[in-house]
Amino acid sequence: MNKRAPWEKAFQKVATPFEQFLHAQTTTGLVLMGMTLIALLLANSPFAESYSHIFHMKIDLNVGEWKLSNSLHHWINDGLMAIFFFMIGLEIKREVLVGELSDIKVAILPILAAIGGMIFPALIYTAINYGTEGASGWGIPMATDIAFAISALVLLGKRVPPALVTFLVALAIVDDLGAVLVIALFYTEQIHMIPLLFAGGAFLILVIFNLFGIHKILPYFIVGLFLWFFMLESGVHATIAGVIAALAIPSTPKRSPSHFVNDTKRLMAEYGRYPVDPEKGINERQKTILSKIKKHIDYISTPAARLEDDLHLPVALIVIPLFALANAGISIDFSAIGTTIMQPVSLGIIAGLIAGKILGIFGVSWLAIKLKLASLPQNSTLKQIFGVALLGGIGFTMSIFVADLAFVGHEALIFQAKIGILTASLIAGVCGYLWLWFAGKSPKGSR
User: Fold this and answer.
1) Strand partners, 70
2) What is the pLDDT of residue 149?
3) CATH class for the domain made up of 14-187+237-252+302-439
4) What whole-number distance in Å separates Cα of residue 402 and Cα of residue 341?
5) Helix (H), strand (E), coil (C) string for 247-303
6) Cα angle for residues 303, 304, 307 (degrees, 5° grid)
7) Can you tell me the distance from the alpha carbon of 133 to that of 366, in angstroms, rounded to the nearest whole number?
8) How confident is the model at residue 22, as a pLDDT?
9) What pLDDT is recorded for position 1?
Protein backbone atom coordinates (compact mmCIF):
# COMPACT_ATOMS: atom_id res chain seq x y z
CA MET A 1 0.00 0.00 0.00
CA ASN A 2 1.35 3.39 -0.99
CA LYS A 3 1.42 5.66 2.06
CA ARG A 4 2.22 8.89 0.32
CA ALA A 5 1.58 12.06 2.28
CA PRO A 6 -1.58 13.94 1.19
CA TRP A 7 0.42 16.85 -0.24
CA GLU A 8 2.50 14.46 -2.35
CA LYS A 9 -0.71 13.07 -3.82
CA ALA A 10 -1.91 16.60 -4.49
CA PHE A 11 1.22 17.37 -6.47
CA GLN A 12 0.48 14.43 -8.76
CA LYS A 13 -3.01 15.70 -9.61
CA VAL A 14 -3.47 17.56 -12.86
CA ALA A 15 -4.97 20.90 -11.84
CA THR A 16 -6.99 23.02 -14.23
CA PRO A 17 -6.02 26.70 -14.61
CA PHE A 18 -9.07 27.60 -12.51
CA GLU A 19 -7.99 25.22 -9.70
CA GLN A 20 -4.48 26.67 -9.82
CA PHE A 21 -5.98 30.16 -9.61
CA LEU A 22 -8.05 29.22 -6.54
CA HIS A 23 -5.02 27.64 -4.87
CA ALA A 24 -2.93 30.75 -5.54
CA GLN A 25 -5.62 33.08 -4.19
CA THR A 26 -6.04 30.95 -1.05
CA THR A 27 -2.28 31.00 -0.49
CA THR A 28 -2.24 34.77 -1.01
CA GLY A 29 -5.09 35.25 1.46
CA LEU A 30 -3.43 33.22 4.21
CA VAL A 31 -0.03 34.89 3.74
CA LEU A 32 -1.71 38.30 3.58
CA MET A 33 -3.50 37.64 6.87
CA GLY A 34 -0.25 36.66 8.58
CA MET A 35 1.65 39.67 7.24
CA THR A 36 -1.14 42.05 8.27
CA LEU A 37 -0.93 40.79 11.85
CA ILE A 38 2.86 41.22 11.81
CA ALA A 39 2.50 44.80 10.49
CA LEU A 40 -0.02 45.66 13.22
CA LEU A 41 2.19 44.12 15.91
CA LEU A 42 5.26 46.05 14.70
CA ALA A 43 3.35 49.34 14.51
CA ASN A 44 2.17 48.91 18.11
CA SER A 45 5.46 47.66 19.57
CA PRO A 46 8.68 49.28 20.81
CA PHE A 47 9.98 48.82 17.23
CA ALA A 48 7.31 51.13 15.77
CA GLU A 49 9.73 53.98 15.02
CA SER A 50 12.23 51.70 13.24
CA TYR A 51 9.39 50.05 11.34
CA SER A 52 8.14 53.45 10.09
CA HIS A 53 11.67 54.64 9.28
CA ILE A 54 12.39 51.63 7.04
CA PHE A 55 9.44 52.31 4.75
CA HIS A 56 10.13 56.06 4.58
CA MET A 57 13.75 55.44 3.62
CA LYS A 58 14.63 56.98 0.23
CA ILE A 59 15.82 54.72 -2.58
CA ASP A 60 17.32 56.46 -5.62
CA LEU A 61 17.70 55.12 -9.14
CA ASN A 62 20.36 57.07 -11.08
CA VAL A 63 21.36 56.83 -14.74
CA GLY A 64 23.81 59.64 -15.53
CA GLU A 65 22.09 62.93 -14.69
CA TRP A 66 18.65 61.32 -14.67
CA LYS A 67 17.33 60.43 -11.21
CA LEU A 68 14.21 58.72 -9.86
CA SER A 69 13.88 59.09 -6.09
CA ASN A 70 11.13 57.57 -3.98
CA SER A 71 10.63 56.12 -0.52
CA LEU A 72 10.54 52.35 -0.10
CA HIS A 73 6.80 52.70 0.57
CA HIS A 74 6.31 54.37 -2.84
CA TRP A 75 8.51 51.83 -4.64
CA ILE A 76 6.29 49.08 -3.26
CA ASN A 77 2.99 50.87 -4.03
CA ASP A 78 3.98 52.26 -7.44
CA GLY A 79 6.48 49.62 -8.55
CA LEU A 80 5.88 46.18 -7.08
CA MET A 81 2.11 46.65 -7.11
CA ALA A 82 2.32 47.14 -10.89
CA ILE A 83 3.13 43.41 -11.01
CA PHE A 84 0.01 42.71 -8.94
CA PHE A 85 -2.08 44.80 -11.35
CA PHE A 86 -0.43 42.99 -14.27
CA MET A 87 -1.71 39.75 -12.70
CA ILE A 88 -5.18 41.30 -12.40
CA GLY A 89 -5.01 42.22 -16.09
CA LEU A 90 -4.08 38.66 -17.06
CA GLU A 91 -6.89 37.25 -14.88
CA ILE A 92 -9.45 39.63 -16.38
CA LYS A 93 -8.33 38.74 -19.89
CA ARG A 94 -8.49 34.98 -19.19
CA GLU A 95 -11.96 35.24 -17.63
CA VAL A 96 -13.28 37.25 -20.59
CA LEU A 97 -11.74 34.99 -23.26
CA VAL A 98 -12.18 31.48 -21.82
CA GLY A 99 -13.43 31.82 -18.23
CA GLU A 100 -16.74 32.50 -16.54
CA LEU A 101 -17.13 35.90 -18.20
CA SER A 102 -16.90 34.41 -21.71
CA ASP A 103 -20.50 33.11 -21.59
CA ILE A 104 -22.89 36.03 -21.09
CA LYS A 105 -25.65 33.71 -19.79
CA VAL A 106 -23.39 32.58 -16.95
CA ALA A 107 -21.64 35.93 -16.53
CA ILE A 108 -24.71 38.17 -16.30
CA LEU A 109 -25.39 37.50 -12.60
CA PRO A 110 -21.82 38.16 -11.29
CA ILE A 111 -21.51 41.17 -13.62
CA LEU A 112 -24.73 42.74 -12.33
CA ALA A 113 -23.85 41.82 -8.73
CA ALA A 114 -20.37 43.34 -9.08
CA ILE A 115 -21.77 46.58 -10.53
CA GLY A 116 -24.28 46.79 -7.69
CA GLY A 117 -21.50 45.95 -5.24
CA MET A 118 -19.54 48.98 -6.47
CA ILE A 119 -22.35 51.54 -6.81
CA PHE A 120 -24.12 51.06 -3.47
CA PRO A 121 -21.00 51.26 -1.25
CA ALA A 122 -19.92 54.44 -3.07
CA LEU A 123 -23.39 55.97 -2.61
CA ILE A 124 -23.53 55.11 1.10
CA TYR A 125 -20.04 56.48 1.70
CA THR A 126 -20.88 59.68 -0.19
CA ALA A 127 -24.12 60.14 1.78
CA ILE A 128 -22.17 59.99 5.06
CA ASN A 129 -19.22 62.12 3.90
CA TYR A 130 -20.96 64.61 1.59
CA GLY A 131 -19.46 68.07 2.00
CA THR A 132 -16.61 66.92 4.27
CA GLU A 133 -12.88 66.73 3.54
CA GLY A 134 -13.21 62.94 3.33
CA ALA A 135 -15.70 63.05 0.42
CA SER A 136 -13.02 62.07 -2.13
CA GLY A 137 -12.73 58.61 -0.54
CA TRP A 138 -15.93 57.31 -2.15
CA GLY A 139 -13.92 54.75 -4.17
CA ILE A 140 -12.49 53.05 -1.06
CA PRO A 141 -15.44 50.78 -0.14
CA MET A 142 -16.10 49.80 -3.77
CA ALA A 143 -13.36 47.16 -3.83
CA THR A 144 -13.46 43.50 -2.76
CA ASP A 145 -10.23 41.74 -1.80
CA ILE A 146 -10.30 38.70 -4.08
CA ALA A 147 -7.64 36.76 -2.14
CA PHE A 148 -9.27 37.11 1.28
CA ALA A 149 -12.81 36.50 0.00
CA ILE A 150 -11.91 33.41 -2.01
CA SER A 151 -9.78 32.06 0.85
CA ALA A 152 -12.77 32.22 3.19
CA LEU A 153 -15.00 30.49 0.63
CA VAL A 154 -12.47 27.77 -0.23
CA LEU A 155 -11.88 27.02 3.48
CA LEU A 156 -15.58 26.14 3.75
CA GLY A 157 -14.89 23.15 1.50
CA LYS A 158 -17.93 21.10 0.50
CA ARG A 159 -20.30 23.30 2.51
CA VAL A 160 -20.50 25.55 -0.54
CA PRO A 161 -21.15 24.35 -4.11
CA PRO A 162 -18.37 24.81 -6.70
CA ALA A 163 -20.64 27.11 -8.74
CA LEU A 164 -20.76 29.55 -5.80
CA VAL A 165 -16.94 29.76 -5.80
CA THR A 166 -17.06 30.41 -9.55
CA PHE A 167 -19.68 33.13 -8.98
CA LEU A 168 -17.44 34.88 -6.43
CA VAL A 169 -14.38 34.65 -8.70
CA ALA A 170 -16.25 36.18 -11.65
CA LEU A 171 -17.72 38.87 -9.38
CA ALA A 172 -14.30 39.72 -7.93
CA ILE A 173 -12.72 39.92 -11.39
CA VAL A 174 -15.37 42.42 -12.55
CA ASP A 175 -14.90 44.27 -9.25
CA ASP A 176 -11.14 44.47 -9.88
CA LEU A 177 -11.79 45.86 -13.37
CA GLY A 178 -14.08 48.48 -11.87
CA ALA A 179 -11.43 49.43 -9.28
CA VAL A 180 -8.81 49.81 -12.02
CA LEU A 181 -11.11 52.12 -14.02
CA VAL A 182 -11.91 54.19 -10.90
CA ILE A 183 -8.20 54.61 -10.13
CA ALA A 184 -7.41 55.57 -13.73
CA LEU A 185 -10.33 57.98 -14.22
CA PHE A 186 -10.93 59.55 -10.82
CA TYR A 187 -7.72 59.34 -8.81
CA THR A 188 -5.41 61.01 -11.28
CA GLU A 189 -4.79 64.61 -10.16
CA GLN A 190 -2.81 65.98 -13.11
CA ILE A 191 -2.02 64.47 -16.51
CA HIS A 192 1.18 65.29 -18.41
CA MET A 193 0.39 64.63 -22.06
CA ILE A 194 3.92 64.06 -23.47
CA PRO A 195 4.77 61.10 -21.17
CA LEU A 196 1.21 59.79 -21.68
CA LEU A 197 1.73 59.82 -25.45
CA PHE A 198 5.01 57.93 -24.98
CA ALA A 199 3.13 55.42 -22.83
CA GLY A 200 0.61 55.03 -25.64
CA GLY A 201 3.49 54.44 -28.06
CA ALA A 202 4.93 51.75 -25.79
CA PHE A 203 1.54 50.02 -25.63
CA LEU A 204 1.28 50.20 -29.43
CA ILE A 205 4.67 48.45 -29.71
CA LEU A 206 3.38 45.68 -27.40
CA VAL A 207 0.31 45.26 -29.61
CA ILE A 208 2.53 45.06 -32.71
CA PHE A 209 4.62 42.35 -31.01
CA ASN A 210 1.39 40.43 -30.45
CA LEU A 211 0.17 40.90 -34.03
CA PHE A 212 3.52 39.69 -35.41
CA GLY A 213 3.25 36.52 -33.32
CA ILE A 214 6.16 37.21 -30.95
CA HIS A 215 5.81 34.76 -28.04
CA LYS A 216 9.09 35.44 -26.24
CA ILE A 217 8.53 37.14 -22.89
CA LEU A 218 11.67 39.33 -22.88
CA PRO A 219 10.57 41.88 -25.54
CA TYR A 220 7.27 42.43 -23.71
CA PHE A 221 9.12 42.82 -20.40
CA ILE A 222 11.53 45.47 -21.75
CA VAL A 223 8.84 47.56 -23.45
CA GLY A 224 6.57 47.04 -20.42
CA LEU A 225 9.20 48.70 -18.20
CA PHE A 226 9.17 51.77 -20.47
CA LEU A 227 5.36 51.74 -20.40
CA TRP A 228 5.46 51.72 -16.56
CA PHE A 229 7.98 54.59 -16.45
CA PHE A 230 6.09 56.80 -18.91
CA MET A 231 2.83 56.12 -17.06
CA LEU A 232 4.53 57.09 -13.78
CA GLU A 233 5.74 60.35 -15.32
CA SER A 234 2.35 61.10 -16.90
CA GLY A 235 0.54 61.43 -13.57
CA VAL A 236 -1.76 58.44 -14.22
CA HIS A 237 -1.03 55.91 -11.49
CA ALA A 238 1.84 53.70 -12.62
CA THR A 239 0.12 50.46 -11.61
CA ILE A 240 -2.40 50.98 -14.45
CA ALA A 241 0.53 50.18 -16.77
CA GLY A 242 0.40 46.62 -15.45
CA VAL A 243 -3.21 46.12 -16.54
CA ILE A 244 -2.62 47.76 -19.94
CA ALA A 245 0.49 45.65 -20.60
CA ALA A 246 -1.43 42.47 -19.73
CA LEU A 247 -3.97 43.21 -22.46
CA ALA A 248 -1.21 43.04 -25.09
CA ILE A 249 0.24 39.66 -23.99
CA PRO A 250 -0.64 36.92 -26.54
CA SER A 251 -3.40 34.57 -25.43
CA THR A 252 -3.19 32.20 -28.40
CA PRO A 253 -0.68 29.35 -28.80
CA LYS A 254 1.99 29.35 -31.47
CA ARG A 255 0.97 25.86 -32.68
CA SER A 256 -2.48 24.30 -32.88
CA PRO A 257 -3.42 21.47 -30.44
CA SER A 258 -3.68 18.96 -33.31
CA HIS A 259 -0.12 19.72 -34.44
CA PHE A 260 1.07 19.37 -30.85
CA VAL A 261 -0.56 15.93 -30.46
CA ASN A 262 0.82 14.62 -33.77
CA ASP A 263 4.35 15.99 -33.23
CA THR A 264 4.50 14.68 -29.64
CA LYS A 265 3.32 11.20 -30.68
CA ARG A 266 5.98 11.09 -33.39
CA LEU A 267 8.74 12.23 -31.05
CA MET A 268 7.68 9.80 -28.28
CA ALA A 269 7.66 6.94 -30.79
CA GLU A 270 11.18 7.91 -31.87
CA TYR A 271 12.25 8.18 -28.21
CA GLY A 272 10.96 4.66 -27.56
CA ARG A 273 13.11 3.15 -30.31
CA TYR A 274 16.27 3.75 -28.28
CA PRO A 275 17.08 1.25 -25.51
CA VAL A 276 17.63 2.75 -22.05
CA ASP A 277 20.86 1.79 -20.28
CA PRO A 278 20.13 1.70 -16.50
CA GLU A 279 23.74 2.66 -15.73
CA LYS A 280 24.29 5.38 -18.34
CA GLY A 281 20.72 6.74 -18.48
CA ILE A 282 19.33 8.33 -21.64
CA ASN A 283 21.60 8.96 -24.60
CA GLU A 284 22.26 12.21 -26.46
CA ARG A 285 19.64 11.52 -29.10
CA GLN A 286 16.97 11.00 -26.43
CA LYS A 287 18.01 14.25 -24.75
CA THR A 288 17.52 16.03 -28.08
CA ILE A 289 14.07 14.50 -28.48
CA LEU A 290 13.04 15.56 -24.94
CA SER A 291 14.28 19.07 -25.70
CA LYS A 292 12.09 19.15 -28.82
CA ILE A 293 9.08 17.95 -26.81
CA LYS A 294 9.66 20.74 -24.27
CA LYS A 295 9.78 23.26 -27.13
CA HIS A 296 6.47 21.92 -28.46
CA ILE A 297 4.95 22.29 -24.98
CA ASP A 298 6.07 25.93 -24.97
CA TYR A 299 4.47 26.38 -28.39
CA ILE A 300 1.10 24.98 -27.25
CA SER A 301 0.99 27.13 -24.10
CA THR A 302 0.33 30.86 -24.40
CA PRO A 303 2.59 33.61 -23.01
CA ALA A 304 -0.38 34.95 -21.00
CA ALA A 305 -0.99 31.56 -19.37
CA ARG A 306 2.72 31.02 -18.67
CA LEU A 307 3.11 34.45 -17.11
CA GLU A 308 0.00 34.06 -14.97
CA ASP A 309 1.23 30.69 -13.75
CA ASP A 310 4.81 31.90 -13.14
CA LEU A 311 3.80 35.09 -11.34
CA HIS A 312 1.24 33.66 -8.92
CA LEU A 313 3.85 32.54 -6.39
CA PRO A 314 6.02 35.70 -6.43
CA VAL A 315 2.92 37.89 -6.14
CA ALA A 316 1.47 35.74 -3.34
CA LEU A 317 4.70 35.43 -1.34
CA ILE A 318 6.53 38.70 -2.09
CA VAL A 319 4.46 41.50 -3.64
CA ILE A 320 1.23 41.30 -1.61
CA PRO A 321 2.95 40.53 1.74
CA LEU A 322 5.30 43.51 1.26
CA PHE A 323 2.32 45.71 0.41
CA ALA A 324 0.55 44.57 3.60
CA LEU A 325 3.71 45.09 5.67
CA ALA A 326 4.14 48.62 4.27
CA ASN A 327 0.49 49.70 4.48
CA ALA A 328 -1.36 47.74 7.17
CA GLY A 329 0.85 48.80 10.10
CA ILE A 330 -1.13 51.47 11.93
CA SER A 331 -0.58 52.53 15.52
CA ILE A 332 -3.87 51.99 17.33
CA ASP A 333 -4.93 53.84 20.46
CA PHE A 334 -7.50 51.36 21.74
CA SER A 335 -8.88 53.88 24.23
CA ALA A 336 -9.89 56.12 21.30
CA ILE A 337 -10.83 53.39 18.82
CA GLY A 338 -14.56 54.02 19.31
CA THR A 339 -14.14 57.72 18.51
CA THR A 340 -12.08 56.92 15.39
CA ILE A 341 -14.64 54.44 14.06
CA MET A 342 -17.38 57.06 14.43
CA GLN A 343 -15.50 59.55 12.23
CA PRO A 344 -17.30 60.06 8.88
CA VAL A 345 -14.51 58.44 6.84
CA SER A 346 -14.32 55.29 8.99
CA LEU A 347 -18.09 55.06 9.36
CA GLY A 348 -18.63 55.57 5.64
CA ILE A 349 -16.19 52.79 4.78
CA ILE A 350 -17.67 50.35 7.33
CA ALA A 351 -21.23 51.07 6.21
CA GLY A 352 -20.20 50.96 2.56
CA LEU A 353 -18.30 47.68 2.78
CA ILE A 354 -20.96 45.90 4.84
CA ALA A 355 -24.40 47.41 4.13
CA GLY A 356 -23.39 48.62 0.66
CA LYS A 357 -22.07 45.23 -0.47
CA ILE A 358 -25.16 43.46 0.91
CA LEU A 359 -27.49 45.86 -0.92
CA GLY A 360 -25.37 45.82 -4.06
CA ILE A 361 -24.40 42.17 -4.41
CA PHE A 362 -27.33 40.40 -2.72
CA GLY A 363 -29.99 43.00 -3.54
CA VAL A 364 -29.12 43.23 -7.23
CA SER A 365 -28.72 39.43 -7.49
CA TRP A 366 -32.13 38.89 -5.87
CA LEU A 367 -33.75 41.41 -8.21
CA ALA A 368 -32.04 39.95 -11.32
CA ILE A 369 -33.20 36.43 -10.38
CA LYS A 370 -36.77 37.54 -9.60
CA LEU A 371 -36.94 39.42 -12.93
CA LYS A 372 -35.54 36.30 -14.65
CA LEU A 373 -32.59 38.26 -16.03
CA ALA A 374 -30.28 35.66 -14.50
CA SER A 375 -30.43 32.39 -12.59
CA LEU A 376 -28.85 31.17 -9.38
CA PRO A 377 -25.47 29.41 -9.61
CA GLN A 378 -25.99 25.64 -9.77
CA ASN A 379 -26.96 23.99 -6.44
CA SER A 380 -26.69 27.29 -4.58
CA THR A 381 -29.31 29.24 -2.62
CA LEU A 382 -30.17 32.89 -2.07
CA LYS A 383 -28.97 32.43 1.52
CA GLN A 384 -25.55 31.54 0.17
CA ILE A 385 -25.58 34.56 -2.18
CA PHE A 386 -26.18 36.66 0.95
CA GLY A 387 -23.09 35.05 2.52
CA VAL A 388 -21.03 35.88 -0.59
CA ALA A 389 -22.28 39.47 -0.34
CA LEU A 390 -20.94 39.59 3.24
CA LEU A 391 -17.56 38.27 2.07
CA GLY A 392 -17.62 40.96 -0.60
CA GLY A 393 -17.20 43.43 2.27
CA ILE A 394 -13.59 42.30 2.73
CA GLY A 395 -11.99 45.24 0.97
CA PHE A 396 -8.45 45.01 2.28
CA THR A 397 -5.77 45.27 -0.44
CA MET A 398 -7.48 47.39 -3.08
CA SER A 399 -9.31 49.53 -0.50
CA ILE A 400 -6.06 50.46 1.27
CA PHE A 401 -4.51 51.17 -2.12
CA VAL A 402 -7.35 53.54 -3.08
CA ALA A 403 -7.26 55.19 0.37
CA ASP A 404 -3.62 56.18 -0.16
CA LEU A 405 -4.58 57.73 -3.51
CA ALA A 406 -7.72 59.46 -2.24
CA PHE A 407 -6.11 61.14 0.77
CA VAL A 408 -2.59 61.99 -0.40
CA GLY A 409 -0.95 64.17 2.25
CA HIS A 410 -3.81 63.73 4.76
CA GLU A 411 -2.38 61.26 7.27
CA ALA A 412 -5.32 61.60 9.69
CA LEU A 413 -7.82 60.65 6.95
CA ILE A 414 -5.63 57.75 5.78
CA PHE A 415 -5.50 56.50 9.38
CA GLN A 416 -9.30 56.73 9.71
CA ALA A 417 -9.70 54.97 6.37
CA LYS A 418 -7.42 52.09 7.37
CA ILE A 419 -9.23 51.67 10.70
CA GLY A 420 -12.51 51.53 8.79
CA ILE A 421 -11.13 49.05 6.24
CA LEU A 422 -9.67 46.72 8.89
CA THR A 423 -12.84 46.84 11.01
CA ALA A 424 -15.20 46.26 8.08
CA SER A 425 -13.03 43.50 6.61
CA LEU A 426 -12.88 41.69 9.95
CA ILE A 427 -16.64 41.92 10.49
CA ALA A 428 -17.41 40.94 6.88
CA GLY A 429 -14.97 38.03 6.88
CA VAL A 430 -16.12 36.51 10.18
CA CYS A 431 -19.84 37.05 9.56
CA GLY A 432 -19.63 35.86 5.95
CA TYR A 433 -17.75 32.69 6.92
CA LEU A 434 -20.15 31.85 9.78
CA TRP A 435 -23.22 32.62 7.67
CA LEU A 436 -22.05 30.32 4.86
CA TRP A 437 -21.06 27.64 7.37
CA PHE A 438 -24.63 27.44 8.69
CA ALA A 439 -26.25 28.14 5.29
CA GLY A 440 -24.34 25.11 4.01
CA LYS A 441 -26.59 22.95 6.18
CA SER A 442 -29.67 24.01 4.22
CA PRO A 443 -31.35 21.30 2.13
CA LYS A 444 -30.06 21.13 -1.41
CA GLY A 445 -31.95 23.46 -3.67
CA SER A 446 -33.81 25.29 -0.89
CA ARG A 447 -34.27 29.01 -1.27
Assistant:
1) 59
2) 82
3) mainly alpha
4) 19
5) HHCCCCCCCCHHHHHHHHHHHHHHHHCCCCECCCECCHHHHHHHHHHHHHHHHHCCH
6) 80
7) 35
8) 62
9) 40
pLDDT at 312: 83
Query: Which has the closest alpha carbon to 346: 279, 299, 282, 412?
Result: 412
- Which amino acid belongs to residue 415? F
Question: What are the residue ranges of CATH 1.20.1530.10 in the chain?
Answer: 14-187+237-252+302-439
Can you give the pTM of this predicted structure? 0.79
What is the rounded distance in angstroms from the CA atom of residue 202 to the CA atom of residue 184? 18
Burial class (CB in 10 A: 0-12, 13-18, 19+), 117: buried
Q: d(Cα 81, Cα 61) in Å, to the nearest integer?
A: 18
What pLDDT, on a 0 to 100 scale, did the predictor assign at position 414? Answer: 93
Task: Pick out the chain residues at pLDDT < 50.
Answer: 1-14, 442-447
Largest CA distance in the chain: 81
Residue 45, CA atoms < 13 Å, CB-side half-sphere: 11
- Kind and range of the H or E element at 62? strand 58-63
Give the angle 229-233-238 at the CA atoms, nearest 5°.
Answer: 60
